[in-house]
Amino acid sequence: MRRLVAIPSLKGCLPLLSLLAAMGSAPALAQDVTPPGYKLAPLTAVTPATPAKQLFGRKTTPANLGLNSIGFYAKGCLSNGVELPANGPTWQVMRPSRDRAWGNPVMIRFIQKLANQAPRVAGWPGILIGDIAQPRGGPMITGHASHQVGLDADIWLTPMPDHTLSRQERETMSAVMMVRSDRLDVSRAWTPGQMAIIKAAAQDPQVERIFANAAIKKALCRDAGADRAWLSKVRPIYGHDYHFHVRILCPANSPTCKPQTPPGPGDGCGKELDYWFSDAVLHPKLNPNPPPPHQMVMAELPPACRQVLAAP
Questions:
Q1: What is the pTM of this model?
Q2: Is residue 22's pLDDT more than 50?
């Protein structure tokens, strides 16, 4: 089986980064479709049009600067982040070849705290952790419009097994689908344990939002009972039927982090949820000639991200 091969930093190209100063556009949208063993192609030159993901995706160490989550969740970078250990008493990191288990220390501590709650609230041995961020954050080579500042994390809805997974199992094991094929409700794999993990995350005051498939939100709305305040943080989104995405608030250690507008009032279980089950959403008309996805360049990121990229 092939593994992700990280190409060394392009030190000779770093002076050209000063040229990346005059372009702007909207952030790209992407699903995480990174295949196991994904290998980066060689990059021979850097220009103002070079996608930022090609630069950040090749960094294998954190920036040796002061700690900071810089910019917005979908347009920023991470300075002096830390890596979540691959194994903990109640967690295991999946897809280690991607090297995406880095985050702001506040996020790393949150994951460990949530993992330690899993046996008590869900009866699980622990949780499986997907992507957090790259060593220096920034746009990823594949997948994810966000996960750029070390404050987003994907948590599988498959319980952690009661044994340590092998490296090969972590690269190839599939998460369990939690949504029916008609997309109208959760599948038979859904249990109270999945709801308990999401609820525990949402009730944490550090959590800003949780993203999950609309069918999962529907199940949460149906089964929440009288305690519904936490539901407002859970927002429906495309995909996210194997895992849920946790986003935490900008922490005090990151003064240049750009916060997101807080979710609106209410539990989000009314007409706004009905939209996600409309025919237009469930059976969209596909454009036979879609435009190419936008490739974010360095000039679209906060200026401090150039220092993060160039740092030792």
A1: 0.85
A2: no
